[in-house]
Write a structure and sequence with these properties.
Elements (H helix, E strand, L loop, with lengths): L4 E3 L13 E4 L10 H8 L11 E3 L5 E3 L1 E3 L1 H8 L11 H15 L5 E7 L5 H8 L3 E7 L6 H5 L6 E2 L11 E7 L8 H11 E12 L4 H6 L12 E2 L2 H10 L2 E8 L2 E4 H13 L10 E4 L3 E8 L5
Parallel strand pairs: 6-7, 6-9, 7-8, 9-10
Antiparallel strand pairs: 1-5, 2-3, 3-4, 4-11, 10-15, 12-15, 13-14
The protein binds zinc ion (ZN).
Length: 301
């Protein structure tokens, strides 16, 4: 199947903005790549030869004006490898335990939906720590399904739109989900219809106004073919207000890393050199992500 590219309106204010400006541009034009090169870039998080250029809307949001169609995305996402960025499962689990410590202050939760659970390490620990009783998954990547079945006996959805609106959740979780979804307005409105009256949405996204993003500029690793837009704390707040949600919190999160991994990554970003460094010690850093929780806002309906 050949990949389709479509034009987008601003996903934060929903306007066809006229006064946006190009902020981060890709060095390579999409039209110069073959389809197999695009697929290779898609399947490797470190291959940043190409990403769609990012524009700053008047509303403050940062987004790609051109991106893959939903149909093409579905195909691209259907077969990918495990999505751990920290290069190490133990580090991944430490980061997830940190998210659980944030979530547990607002729980426990009975019926939960996790979108994009990937290898399921968050869900597994949420259940183990009794923060969550019952969990369903939406995971487009079928390669992960056998792992997820070990964690929850419930059915696994490939797509959120498959879920009947009569099913209601107390909490919907999406760790690094919203910065992958081009039509966030429709997507969050579907989440809204699956939440009960007091329901909340919790997630983690990259912060495009973080110190790291400002230092690395166009070399910031989150400028990526996978991200049709990137949030900052203001743009996520105004997006959720626009779709009728109320803020519970927005807070910077920690990421756990092996220092060697971090050095390798930094060398790759700055000097484009691949280096393998002997594992050193663990470090936790506020590396340019934030967690958020928003609640259905009964008053504005
Ligand atoms: Zn906008």
């Amino acid at each position: 199947m050949s990949l389709e590219i479509i034009d987008r309106v601003c996903p934060f204010c929903f306007q066809q903005d006229k006064n946006s400006y190009l902020e981060i541009s890709s060095k390579v034009e999409y039209s110069t790549l073959t389809e197999s090169e695009v697929r290779t870039i898609w399947n490797n998080v470190f291959n940043r030869k190409f990403f769609f250029s990012y524009f700053r809307c008047e509303c403050g949001g940062l987004y790609n004006k051109e991106y893959f169609s939903i149909k093409s995305l579905k195909e691209l996402y259907s077969k990918m490898k495990e999505n751990i960025h920290t290069g190490d499962k133990n580090m991944d689990i430490k980061t997830k335990i940190h998210y659980i410590s944030i979530l547990s202050q607002h729980g426990p939760f009975n019926n939960v939906l996790e979108i994009g659970p990937d290898n399921g390490s968050l869900a597994e620990n949420l259940i183990k720590q009794k923060v969550v009783k019952n969990i369903d998954f939406v995971e487009p990547n079928v390669e992960m399904h056998s792992n997820l079945k070990k964690i929850s006996k419930n059915s696994i959805f490939k797509n959120i739109y498959e879920i009947d609106d009569n099913i209601k959740y107390d909490l919907v979780i999406g760790i690094h989900v919203l910065d992958h979804i081009p039509d966030i307005k429709n997507y969050v409105s579907k989440i809204d219809s699956l939440l009960n009256a007091e329901g909340t949405i919790f997630g983690v996204v990259h912060d495009e106004k973080s110190l790291l993003a400002r230092i690395l500029a166009s070399r910031w690793p989150a400028y990526l073919i996978w991200h049709p837009h990137l949030f900052n704390t203001n743009s996520i707040r105004s997006f959720f207000r626009n779709v009728g949600f109320k803020q519970i919190f927005i807070k910077k999160t920690l990421n756990y890393f092996n220092v060697s991994y971090l050095l390798e990554h930094l060398i790759r970003a700055l000097f484009k050199k691949e280096l393998k460094i002997f594992p050193l010690f663990t470090l936790s850093l506020k590396l340019g992500n934030f967690a958020f929780m928003f609640k259905k806002n009964q008053i504005t309906r």
